[in-house]
Amino acid sequence: MKIHAFKAFLTMALFTGISSVWAQTPASTGTPVNNYNYHDAFAPNFYTKNGTSTRTASGQPGVDYWQNRADYQLTVKLNNTTNELVGTDEITYTNNSPDKMSFLWLYLDQNLFKNDSRGNAVVPLTGSRNGAQGQVFDGGNKIKSVKIISGGKTKTEVTAKYIITDTRMQIFLPQELAAKGGSVKVKIEFSFIAPFEGSDRMGVLETKNGKIFTIAQWYPRMCVYDDVKGWNTAPYLGASEFYLEYGNFDVKITAPANHYVVGSGELVNGVEVLSAEQLKRYKEAQQSDKTVVIRSAAEVASTANTNATAEKTWHYRITNARDFSWASSPAFILDGAKINLPSGKKSLALSAYPVESSGNDAWSRSTEYVKASIENYSKRWFEYPYPAATNVAGNEGGMEYPGIVFCGWESKGEDLWGVTDHEFGHIWFPMIVGSNERYFAWMDEGFNTFINSVSSVDFNKGEYKQKAEDLHENAEYYTSPKLETVLSSPDNMKERNIGVLCYAKPSAGLVMLREQILGEERFDKALRTYVERWAYKHPTPDDFFRTIENVAGEDLSWFWRSWFINNWRFDQGINSIKYVKNDPAKGVVITVENFDKIPMPIVLDVKTKSGKVTRVKLPVEIWQRNNSWSFKHNSTEEIESVTLDPDHVFPDYNESNNVWKAGNGKIEKDIVLDAYIGKYVTANSPLTVELSEKNSVLNAELPNYPKFSLDPVANEKDTFESGRAGVKLKFNEAKTGFDMTLTGNGQVIPFTKK
Ligand SMILES: [Zn+2]
């Protein structure tokens, strides 16, 4: 009877012990404060919704994925004196959605530059790059007519009703547009005066040989209708960029005859607009790996100030693009070179810049940069799809469009490489992978900044290679409590935080993921897959997270939560070391604590007295249920130092606890367990308790029970306990026996050594 009662009680103690361990909250370590909560970091159900038939759980476009389409025929005429542009915008809009439509939404981005625009209202008094920088002029779109065109051979044009609200225009359709393939043609006559500084994305720059017009956000553009929000109509306020549909563009630009016009895509009528000599050089450039001058400084000087009343019309075309931009100037020097693509196809790198920007330390190397940048990204991520890539010197800091970018005319050397490589990197994000920039700038700026970091290592044997980032130095910059989260939209964060939150922080996150968490091969494969899956489509943040997790085969919810969803902080520290049995020859136990919200793998260097350094790496999983972690390292001599994150690859904002040093670091006493080991019996029952030792831990074994470990009780000599088993063992001085207390009921059973 008694033995049964004893067994039953112990079984119960084992069970309640186990369940109470599960329910335990992490023990506080006193000072310093530990903010880590492993349940927050590793909680299940990261995704707030399951996959759908349009966006699957694995991060792919689903079988029912749809996307609408906008094809544009644009004509425009530039007035070199008044800076006015007058044009016609003919849009063929195809509704592939499952919904009927009775109205359309378009963007009129030039309305940002109207005096009373919402964007102007939110520009602070100082320190902003947005808006028209105080220029007083008659800005904004003037809409002359909006018509719906129907019919095949016998075209009819019906004037449509529309409402303009700030930078948006809603057009009401005379007939409902059918779902799943319905198509409508809209024709809009528009004009506007180009601002000198167009929110740092377009503008007019005066040079000695005439004005440079860099023209963008210039024609009424379709808003995106998607399966996420329906119509995406968030206004253009300045800070947040764009979200646009794909389609083909056919564009005719009329400018004074002494201008050279460059644009997105392919020049269709070179024969008409170029001189015979220029056309010959243009074709030479298409075959040459070395830069060929197509329009020289001397030619610019001879025609720049001619009284040009005559005009030329330049015809450009680009297919499968989300936008069209262009630039025009009598001041343009033009040079070009061939771009070699992985498939064997060729494209053409071009640079257009004024004589003020020329020189081998400046824009005369631009074409070399464009070619290198595009060849590299094509090789690493996805092949460049457009027939040309043009870099234009303008008064923007740097701005990207399909097949054409505007970079600062004063940029030189490494700066010019950096901005050119960055703006052309945008061809991949967001021009090919068409994410919603208005809300998720990190998905284009951040991803692009990341691919730029790899590109700069590759370029010209590392000519402009940056030294590896010190994440300890930058930890405060990335995780200051004053920051919003990476997932905030640029319109929803302080303008000064855009640089870190949209560019540097997401990029540093991808570098960590690539170099520390997944490794280059797995990460690159996952990112390439994301680009391939979502090329010319509209991915959301979840589509990205799911693709990376599915291709790499890891649950990275802890990482997304730490770095993207929340603005968490990271601080690992070394508490103490302990020699096994107090003998350095037998190895060392090292205890690391995670003090703040972000978990990360452990990387540390152990240096012994003789100078030998060993690197130890532990996976992030150790933090799934622990705030501190002890592990044994098989060293055979005294430890000189232990250094956490020796390469500064994790954003540890508190470096003061990262190094343990002999002399001032804490060495804990190991309790030598030899004396306790053995078999113990009790007079009360035929039960035997066997105590053994493994890795300095005392283990107990009873017949028919799971083995459990015993921890020394602080400040109680020769005493051990197991919360799990619900027992406490107090040895006598001679270690010839112990009293076992059942912590559940306080019953004491004496055992003696066999
Ligand atoms: Zn950018």
From TrEMBL:
Enzyme superclass (EC): hydrolase
MF GO annotations: aminopeptidase activity
Coiled coil: none
SUPFAM superfamilies hit by this protein: Metalloproteases ('zincins'), catalytic domain
Domain Peptidase M1 membrane alanine aminopeptidase: start-end pairs: 412-563
Gene3D superfamilies: Neutral Protease Domain 2
Keywords for the protein's UniProt record, in alphabetical order: Aminopeptidase, Hydrolase, Protease, Signal
Segment forming the signal sequence: 1-23
InterPro entries xref list: Peptidase_M1_aminopeptidases, Peptidase_M1_dom, Peptidase_M4/M1_CTD_sf
Domain of life: Bacteria
EC numbers: 3.4.11.-
Keyword Signal found: yes
UniProt-recorded name of the protein: M1 family metallopeptidase
